[in-house]
Amino acid sequence: MKIIIDAGHGYSTPGKRSPSGMREYEFNREAALAAKETLLSYEKTEVYFTHSDKEDVSLMRRTGLANKIKADVFISIHANAFGSAWNEAHGVETYVHQTKPAAALSLAAIIQKKLAARTGLASRGVKAADFHVLRETKMTAVLVECGFMTNPKEAALLKTPLYRKVCGQAVALALAEHYKLSKKESSLYKVQAGAFSKKENAEALLRRLKGAGFDGFISRG
């Protein structure tokens, strides 16, 4: 499954900052990294980024990449704002295109539920808009707003590594639930040279192994 995680904007995007100067992209990229890390713990997942730390990538290039690789789903991660001064606007919300595709609505509902539950912020619900990344993508596309940069309390949260990780993980877990992804099995491989009821027999074998140039140890169990 090909998943696009899009950290909105970039380091040099005009505006898109909290009144205290935090760039939105700082939050977006870290949440995207957390989402990718979690998603790669599932079977048959490929995760792609559309953003760059070296340049501001245009919206057209972002959606063009997603369409070119024929991604299955596109998730754009953002931090919200209301005006440019501190205010009381608050909460998390999720967007689908204004045509309200059924698949996007279904995924958005799960993302919104997990995001609100894991962040503890007020849920502003699932909304519809004509954003470029929702309109020009040829796959299921959702945009998430993870709190307000213009709210003093939420801006403080958006600056913390823990909150960024929580938001990214919430998005990833929602994708896993919606698409019924299976966790990768963790494997442990062992090589055992012998098993004995008497310790001296185990010690004798270990000496022979070491004499032959192999390292080893005795485990009781």
From TrEMBL:
State the name under which the record lists this protein.
N-acetylmuramoyl-L-alanine amidase
Record's keyword annotation contains Hydrolase: yes
Keywords annotated in UniProt: Hydrolase
Ranges of residues in domain SPOR: 183-221
Q: What is the lineage of its organism?
A: Bacteria, Bacillati, Bacillota, Bacilli, Bacillales
Per the UniProt entry, what are the Gene Ontology biological process annotations, in alphabetical order?
peptidoglycan catabolic process
Q: Care to name a GO molecular-function term for this sequence?
A: N-acetylmuramoyl-L-alanine amidase activity
Cited InterPro entries: MurNAc-LAA_cat, N-acetylmuramoyl_amidase_3, SPOR-like_dom
State the Pfam families in the record.
Amidase_3, SPOR
Q: State a GO cellular component annotated for this protein.
A: outer membrane-bounded periplasmic space
Q: Which Gene3D superfamilies match?
A: Zn-dependent exopeptidases
User: Per the record's keyword annotation, is Hydrolase included, yes or no?
Assistant: yes
Q: Which organism is it from?
A: Rossellomorea vietnamensis
